[in-house]
Specification:
- Keywords: FAD, Flavoprotein, Oxidoreductase.
- Belongs to the DAMOX/DASOX family.
- The chain is α/β, with parallel strands linked by helices.
- The protein is built from five helices and 15 strands.
- Helix 1 packs parallel to helix 3, helix 1 crosses helix 5 and helix 2 crosses helix 5.
Length: 349
Amino acid sequence: MADTVVVVVVGAGVSGLTSALLLSKNKGYSITVVAKHMPGDYHGEYASPFAGANIVPMADEAGKRWESETWHELKRLAQEIHRRSRDLATDAGFPAQTFSSAPWYRGLFDDYRDLPPADVLDGYDSASEYTGVCINTAVYLPWLVGQLLRNGVVVKRGILADIVEAKALGHTGRPASVIVNATGLGSHKLGGVRDPALYPVRGQTVLVRNETTPMVLCSGSSDGPGEELYVMQRAGGGGTVLGGTYDVGNWDTEPDPNVASRIMARAVRARPGMAGGRGVAGLSVIRHAVGLRPARRGGVRLEREALDGATTVVHNYGHGGFGYQSSYGYAAGVVELVGEIRRQRAAKL
């Protein structure tokens, strides 16, 4: 139909897929998702498969909308609350408000509580506990694709050198009037964007078969700057993610054996029962992994930009380590911007 808005979403990480999903729930859009990497792929520049994908709000008071909206949707989607998330805090690598003594998200979770000093791990200052969600990314990303296909979205692979190339990639053959740029770190070098504010935050993890609950997330470790402690068991046989690192500016996607040894040692010290009291030797390793979190100086870029007289780009990238837990909030922002473009387009006809 001539009045249908042709939309091409570039990027198939959690931000791109969720943006496409929310758009597909509205009538009048013909949507195509184009991406170099797809769910099922494992490559360091495709961060979404490697994420711990749990819920630990990181926004400040002014930006709480994105995570608040996402939490309510993830809570609705979850058939069961998979894991109990324990948040053990010092100030090392995470935003200060994440471990504030009075965080805004106290009221977001039904059972949020501060833990007494006796329940805080040695070496840490404070702790809180609440029931959250830990997403099995190997299940969730393909699920998103399935929802898109059900809604008539076309998903295909492609490598773009310049954002303008997306204009011709819609499955209808008509040029796109809206391009959603959800390329994450790819926007650092993508022609027509080339955002110098983007930078990687390297995250190395170990995925093991061992199980343990509740989850643990600590903001740093005694092993030095950029090294953290987290233990996140995924539902549905997804294994347990042991982490990790928060290495700003490091583009290396190869796992470091020495870092891996420290990650595993930290995890079994915090949860000796997980390994049957055998230390690192008691861990059953599935794989070692590295993902590059797409961080951005100045925060997430969620805005519209004219490509030419007929096409507008809506940017949605730079989510760092909080892509999953803000995915629905920012996707709703994309829908709002695309809606504005559509209304303005209709007014000119």
